[in-house]
Each structure stands twice: as C-alpha cells, then as structure tokens.
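FORM 7B - TANDEM STRUCTURE REPORT

SECTION 1: FIRST PROTEIN
SEQUENCE AND TOKENS:
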Amino acid sequence: MNTEQLQAWHKQRHLDVTGAQGDLTLIAMHELTSETTVKQIAGSWKPTSPTELGLTLKATVEDQLFINGVLVDGVVHIIADETVVQTTDGISAMATSQPGSMHLLAIWDENSPVLQTFSHIDAYEMNKQAIYNGKLIKDDAMIEFSHTGDAHLAARSHASIGVIEVEIGGVHYRLRPFQSGRYSIIIFRDATSGNETYSMGRMVVIEHLDDETVLLDFNKAFLPPCAFSSSFNCPMPPLSNRIQSKIEAGEKQIISLHS
C-alpha cells in the first residue's frame, strides 16, 4: 500500500461509517426471543425460527415501512444482513447476529445526533514500519472473547482460523484473530491505547499472502464499531493480543465538530 492508496482507504472508511447503515448512525440493537415491538420503528418483529438466522416482520400500510421501495402490508421474512427495512424519515432496520445472539434487530437513524456532530476520524500518517508478515498456525478452535456490552464482560465464543506468529518491536507474539463473515480480524491493544488512540483497542483485517503467510498492515488499523455507537457489542482484546510497543499507524480517534 502506498500513500495514495491509504488516502483512498480513509475516504472509503469515512463514507462507510457515515452511511445510512453506518457505524455512526446505529441507534439500537435489540436481541429478540419472541414477537415484540420496539420504540424506534413500527411493526412487530420476531425470530423466524429458533435455529435459523433472520426475522419475521408483520406490518400494515399505516406503518409506512418499505423494502426495496415496496410498501410492507402483511408478513415478510427479513433475511439476515441482507434485507433492509426503511421508513420515510431516515430510519432503517436489518436482521443480524453475532456469536451467542442469533436474532438481533439493528436500527439506524440517518439523522442521528452523533452523526450531526461528527467531523472525521483522526489517523496517523503512512508508516511503512507498521507492516508485518506473520506465520499462520491453522486450527479450528472456538475462542472466547469478552464483550463490551455484556454484563460483567461475559465471554462469547468466536470461530478463529488459528494463531498468527509475528515479531513486533522485538517481541514475539501469538495473536489470535476472530472470524467475522469472510474476514479474519485481530482486535488489539498497544502502547497508544487510551492515550493517542481509542482506549478499548483497534482492529486490523488479516491479508493472506499464501497458505501459511499473512500480512498485518497496521496502516489500515481501524476503530471498532463500538467507538462510534454504544449500541454495538464489540469483542475485547484477549491477553494474547496486547502489544507492548506503540503501533503508530492506522486510525486514532473520532473527532467531533466541537473538538
């Protein structure tokens, strides 16, 4: 990655977090176990099946809910992470999930007050010293990660592709990623966390070079979703992912218009 490519990556990140279903616009995340209504959006919602992802929405014409521009009138299946339900005033909703929670209803507001005060994401300049090759030791373990939004930081089991062996600042680490869709992500803390960068830590996506070698480009280290909205429930860095030295690359903090 060169400086121009990094600038393009930052611009895309800005678009992603400020979008209609961006991290900044998330206003609620409801875990559903039975048919229920929520205050942020009309209709009644329930899990389609106890063992399958997705939700069922029941709404009338008066609820003014739309899917792909078509008014909902009756019962419809909401495909997880695909079907978007919209209102006429900037509210949208989607079925989603995370380990330990099969049936989540995520709700966004394009007019979120947090979005209105957002300026940009502060970031480091390009740092070629923050790019590392690591060795992937594959396994199919389920790894427990504590989560920010769970009582007593309760752990949830995440799938993991294995351990990443890498040397950073003269120290040998065995970093443990978690699986998120088709991506493997390392949530980490380093010596900048809580000072120069977001206190809980940051994330970086693993790039595969070959079957056993991965690239960790910390210039693309990004703030976790919970840095933008408290409605997200993010995994926290395990002890193995706590780096002693400073990773002076990637995103730092959210900057508001009033900072």
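SECTION 2: SECOND PROTEIN
SEQUENCE AND TOKENS:
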Amino acid sequence: MTPPSTAATPTAPALREILMVTTTVATEAEAKRLAHAVLHARLAACVQVEPITAYFHWEGALEECRELRVACKTAASAMPALMALLRKQHPYTLPQLVVQPVQASAEYGCWVDEQLVQQQQQQPARQPAMAMA
C-alpha cells in the first residue's frame, strides 16, 4: 500500500463575479466622452477602449464599419445606473448594450467594488423631509 502524499495540493484561486458592460461607438472622441462620463459617475471601476470591425445588418443592408468597443468593468449594484447613463449619452439610435458576468480574481473584484463604493460615499447626504405643521 502506498502512503498518502504529503505534498501540498494546489487550491483553485478565489474568484469573484464582476460584470462587463460593453457598447460600441464610431469615434475615439465618443469613446473618450463615454469613458469619462462613466468613470466620473463612478459607475465602473475601469473602462477599456479597443478598435474592432463590426459586420451587421442595418435597415436592409449588410454593413461593415470600424468601431471602438467600450468595455466597462462594474458590479451588479451599479449596473442599472450605468445602463441608464449609457442609454442617455450614447450617440447611436440603437446602441449595443451587452452585459456579461465574468469571473475575476478575488483581489480585482474587491478593487472593483471599492471604486464603486467611493461613489456612494461622495454623494451628499439627503436632508430629512420636514413635517408640515
């Protein structure tokens, strides 16, 4: 009989779920404007912009165009407000707004949460409503 191994068995790294919200825009200026608006509102911890080529049907024609993918890393708690901001400020008539849950390292997931918590702490406290006599 072989004795059990005393070597340490590797454990799976701790993971946390974050959300990746993506959209596309036509110009670098539009991407930068959206990224700054999202980050200023602290609705995402990080926004990445990368060039892509999109192929799609639009109004009966097959289209091909260069676009920029704008990917926002956020948490579920900030997602509704982030989607509202993107809908309001997006230059497209029908913007691509895609939400994907992704697994991140626990440390990175904590960092994402910390960035969003700061937004809540920076908002002014609401004044209590005064009772009418």
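SECTION 3: OBSERVATIONS ON SECOND PROTEIN
The beta strands are 15-25, 46-58, 61-74, 98-105.
DSSP finds three helices and four strands in the chain.

SECTION 4: SIGNATURE
Preparer initials: ____
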